[in-house]
Specification:
Distance between the termini: 39 Å
Strand order of the largest sheet: 1-2-3-4-5-6
Shape: globular
Structural class: alpha+beta
Strand content: 5-15%
Radius of gyration: 31 Å
Order of helices and strands: HHHHEEEEEEHHEEHHHH
Number of strands: 8
């Protein structure tokens, strides 16, 4: 049995490498065909364009790694079944479990590599790609203006829509500008025509508008509305350059974080949800007690977030053992919080000890209780926890798909021996499409709090595991029935 596992793994190795290379190259070429025109039109250096597509490769590998496992299993097992190699192995006393064991062990190794890749490498490359895309979007924004489309001139601040845009002179007709910088105060500018141009410093964008009106209103006070008419109005958008400049932003989205930061955010969000729920219950009881003239009840003590998971604790221990020691000041200043010394230079978690929490709540009790505000805090904490927990569970479920695809691919390939390339492409694409449709649909349901994040990300894995195990059992029984019939026929012929 030492020879057989090596033979099985060697037969799967090259199809896996070929599938990974082919799928990643295909997706990369698709990205190049879709984005190259826009990148070249902005006059970017070739090194920036190469960097942009190089940073997309890790994301593509994270997607195609599990798919390559499925295609390698489909191709190799169907070929071995067609060449009767599996029949010869079973005739030699090799059971289905012995055939499946090395494939599952190899898939477990690939899943572990996929998990570490998605935790340590992918968030960093996604963050660099996000910063690069932000810098590219600030370069020559006039080039990317499209007609009848709401164009984001500056991310999170200003959007523009025009019915006609002359790409040679950048004159516009039927212009609408949306100021989205303030969430509360809305400002929309309508103009008959306009002109786009850069200021002399080549860093500020000037939008010169003609014959229009400015509409302003406050979302908190719908009765307030202001309209201003103008013949000529200049809107200055600062920080928009005609040349490519690099700038880094420390903010990271959920897809730019590893397992441990995601786990920390989820734990803090759950703790915030628990605290807000306690405040809701206390505020509701105090409202009733005030109606009958009773004093307010103090809030129940709520602890901080729970401990980190085992992987994060082990990773922190490993980093502490092999990493450089953190420098500490010789004198540590302290401050008094409810009679206790709390270091001022401590981490964020230090500020949320129960003593500090009680001090914060004691100050908040000086205001009148607002039950609806606390309920909004509960809802906000639940949504925030769900969004980040979905990404956290995705870090585990996608690598686990490498193992599950082996369970699905082996019986499927044995059912269609000599399926060849048609089986690999057809069945592989169908299985993979079902899997990712389940992930996307589950993520949408979890973000709307319709489904728990764990079930949303693991439902497809669980369903495919059941289908794969059922297929293996059925394939084993189907392969055993003909042998019994052949024995009966042989016995009847001898009689």
């Amino acid at each position: 049995m030492k020879i057989l596992p090596r033979y099985l793994l060697r037969q799967h190795l090259w199809p896996f490498v070929f599938a990974l290379s082919a799928l990643t190259s295909f997706e990369l070429l698709r990205q190049i065909a879709r984005r190259l025109k826009d990148l070249l039109g902005k006059g970017l250096p070739w090194t920036v364009i190469v960097e942009f597509f190089a940073l997309t490769i890790p994301f593509l590998i994270a997607v195609t790694l599990s798919m390559s496992v499925l295609m390698a299993v489909l191709y190799t097992v169907s070929r071995m079944a067609g060449d009767h190699e599996l029949t010869a192995m079973k005739a030699g006393g090799v059971s289905s479990g012995q055939l499946l064991r090395p494939l599952l062990l190899a898939a477990t190794g690939v899943a572990l590599v996929s998990f570490l890749f998605g935790d340590q490498i992918l968030p960093r490359t996604n963050h660099r790609l996000s910063n690069l895309m932000r810098n590219i979007s600030r370069t020559k924004p006039t080039f990317s203006l499209k007609e009848h489309v709401v164009n984001e001139v500056k991310q999170g601040r200003l959007a523009l829509r025009a019915a006609r845009i002359d790409q040679a002179t950048y004159r516009m007709r039927d212009v609408t500008i949306y100021n989205i910088e303030e969430a509360r105060r809305k400002r929309i500018i309508y103009a008959d025509s306009g002109l786009v141009g850069f200021a002399p410093n080549r860093e500020d964008l000037h939008l010169t508008l003609y014959d229009g009106s400015i509409h302003e209103y406050d979302s908190d006070d719908p009765q307030v509305f202001q309209q201003t008419l103008f013949e000529r109005q200049v809107v200055v958008v600062r920080g928009v350059t005609n040349d490519f400049t690099r700038s880094e932003q420390d903010f990271r989205s959920d897809r730019e974080l590893g397992v441990c930061p995601l786990d920390s955010i989820v734990r803090w969000a759950r703790a915030e949800e628990t605290r807000a729920e306690t405040q809701v219950r206390t505020a509701e009881r105090n409202v009733l007690r005030r109606l009958v003239g009773l004093p307010d009840l103090p809030e129940d003590s709520v602890g901080g977030p729970g401990p980190a998971n085992l992987y994060c604790r082990a990773l922190a221990t490993l980093r502490g053992a092999i990493g450089p020691k953190r420098l500490e000041a010789q004198e540590r200043r302290v401050r008094r919080v409810e009679g206790k010394d709390v270091p001022t230079g401590d981490s964020l978690a230090q500020l949320f000890r129960p003593a500090a929490q009680r001090a914060i709540r004691a100050r908040s009790r000086a205001r009148a209780p607002d039950v609806q505000r606390f309920r909004d805090q509960v809802e906000s904490a639940r949504v925030r926890a769900a969004i980040y927990e979905v990404e956290l569970q995705k870090k585990y479920s996608i690598p686990a798909a490498c193992i599950i695809f082996v369970l699905v691919g082996v019986p499927l390939a044995m059912q269609f021996p000599r399926g060849g390339l048609g089986l690999v492409l057809g069945a592989g694409m169908v299985v993979f499409a079902i899997y990712y449709i389940g992930l996307i649909g589950g993520e949408s349901l979890a973000n709307r709090l319709t489904l728990s994040p764990f079930l949303a990300m693991w439902a497809t894995n669980i369903l495919m595991s059941v289908v794969g195990v059922a297929g293996l059992v059925w394939q084993r029984r189907a392969g055993a029935v003909p042998r019994r019939r052949r024995r009966r026929r042989t016995g009847a012929a001898a009689a």
